[in-house]
Amino acid sequence: MRTMKVMAAALAATLVLSSPAAAYASPKPELDVIIHGGKVFDGSGAPGRFADVGIKDGRIHRVGDLRRAGARSRYDAAGQYVTPGFIDVHAHTETGPPLAGAKSALTQGVTTETLGPDGSGPFEIDKELRRLDKDEKGINVAPYVGFNSVWEATMGELDTRPTAAQSAQMRARIENGMRQGAWGVSGGLGYTPASYARTNEVIDVVRGARPWRAFFTDHMRDETNLVVESTKEDIAIGEAAGLMPEITHMKVAGPRNWGKSATMLRLLGEARASGTHAGGDVYPYTAAATGLAFYVPAWAQDGGTAAMLARFADPALRPRIDAEVTAFVIDDVGTPDKVSTPELGNKTIAQFMAEYGNVTIGEAVMRILAAHNGNVLAVMHIGSEDDLARFITDPFVAFSSDGGVTESAQTHPRHYGSYPRVLGRYVRERGLLTWEEAIRKMTGLPATMVGMVDRGYLAEGMAADVTVFDPKTIADRATFDNPKQYSAGVRWVFVNGKLALANGEPTRASAGQALRRAASMPTRPQNAGKDLAVGAAGVVRPADGGGAILLAALSQRAGDRVASGTVVVVGPMGVLRSERLGRLQTTGGWFSVSGIGRLADGSERAFTLTVDERDPLARPGQRRATVQVDGTRLIYGGLV
């Protein structure tokens, strides 16, 4: 406490000498964009309020009454809802030309998609991010490091046990992926060859991410008859590995299993009560989509596609595969008319069975796969509306699409309609959620789950990812028969402060960024409904020299939209004093705040401050601070 008082006195003296309030007149701000007259939802779950949003240099510069402020562009949002851009934590995003326009995402209000779901993410994240940096991007992208990719690269496609050296190699690949900027570890224990990994083997590998305080987002091992057991397994992996267990695209498959959603959510709640931050995500459909080979038993896929097709042709094995595939399909959907193939004229398994001469389910599946080298997309109508409603309304389950950017016309409608479907069908029409709660589960909640500090909220200093939509007309149009139909009701989307969508069409502003997770960006719960108070004072000393003097004394009362207090930084930019603060975010030994500060010349700059006692790159017992002031070099180092 004495050190903080000494530092505060030193800083006060510095301010008197270098930037007295009378030394300059406050200039009228020149904003890039003002969105005025709309109802603003900040992403915290607080009710909407009528306010204007001002954007400058890619950041939220002001939220309030901006009728007298000047701007290069003004957008009349009367009758519209203004929200943070939606963040999709489970997306099968197509990079290349589709990502450049990103129309399927932008017309849903999505501004950020994660990459590499279901364990498929690359483990050489530095190379992936460099590649993404070069791509034209209509939205932001944020990669995961994939457990399945790490397992397959090390173990191949065979069902074998890893040696101690192989486990160490896989663990190092996970840790390196996090160090290089991955936003979490994705898993797909329902898919071969990762499904060959035993629970203790998964734990031994993914614990490489423990120091990074990340999450393990998993397509669980079994979403049908063993859905409860698989929920327990994911929780156990997270607890033992020191990661947040996050069950992705939550569902309960098969009529005989419907209703088990209540047990799944209870188990996650019990984990949170015992101290493990746990949650999930869900998309708003009762139908899934994946490769048709998903129905082939793991033992028959051992060794890869060629080995699987060879087993199909083995007369000694074919009857067993037939029986197991048939049983799985019945368990999963009930009847074969509920599995269709979008790439094959949307024909159902039942139709193929008749076409092949009234064969069994398993026989039809094997013939379809054999004719297409084992690679056929299937849409499976597996779920119930009651289970979906439970997932949708749980406060710890975020929304996702399991879709992502695409231009395909032969796919699941979730690629084109997920977020407007939630808002139009489940909020406006059915009233399952309030607007503010649904928006929170699309913005602030997913941002904190993956560790983002400057996205997910509409507050001063945050990245200017903004979605403006009409609450009366927002709706999905995509259907299973005609999935490539863009959603209605999203009026404008801004990505990093640039207009990315207008009148239903991308502007091709190429404003998206390849996002990197820093060491001081932990996965964490939201802080809604809590009184918060933090402080820090000292000198930030980067390893490469330079540094800054820092003073921060901050609080935020439950129900307040933004923080109160002061941030002062004395560094290469001169003296920066906070003028308007954004939202204070905290978790054990860590806090972050954004805001707008004023320099001695009267100019205003956005800033983000993070102070962290558990930074994995720090020495034992060392606190680290990160100070980012727009237009200046990032300052990151020990706080002494």
TrEMBL record:
<dbReference type="InterPro" id="IPR032466">
    <property type="entry name" value="Metal_Hydrolase"/>
</dbReference>
<dbReference type="InterPro" id="IPR050378">
    <property type="entry name" value="Metallo-dep_Hydrolases_sf"/>
</dbReference>
<feature type="domain" description="Amidohydrolase 3">
    <location>
        <begin position="397"/>
        <end position="498"/>
    </location>
</feature>
<dbReference type="GO" id="GO:0005829">
    <property type="term" value="C:cytosol"/>
</dbReference>
<protein>
    <recommendedName>
        <fullName>Amidohydrolase 3 domain-containing protein</fullName>
    </recommendedName>
</protein>
<dbReference type="Pfam" id="PF07969">
    <property type="entry name" value="Amidohydro_3"/>
</dbReference>
<dbReference type="InterPro" id="IPR013108">
    <property type="entry name" value="Amidohydro_3"/>
</dbReference>
<feature type="signal peptide">
    <location>
        <begin position="1"/>
        <end position="25"/>
    </location>
</feature>
<keyword id="KW-0732">Signal</keyword>
<dbReference type="GO" id="GO:0016812">
    <property type="term" value="F:hydrolase activity, acting on carbon-nitrogen (but not peptide) bonds, in cyclic amides"/>
</dbReference>
<dbReference type="InterPro" id="IPR011059">
    <property type="entry name" value="Metal-dep_hydrolase_composite"/>
</dbReference>
<dbReference type="GO" id="GO:0016811">
    <property type="term" value="F:hydrolase activity, acting on carbon-nitrogen (but not peptide) bonds, in linear amides"/>
</dbReference>
<dbReference type="InterPro" id="IPR023100">
    <property type="entry name" value="D-aminoacylase_insert_dom_sf"/>
</dbReference>
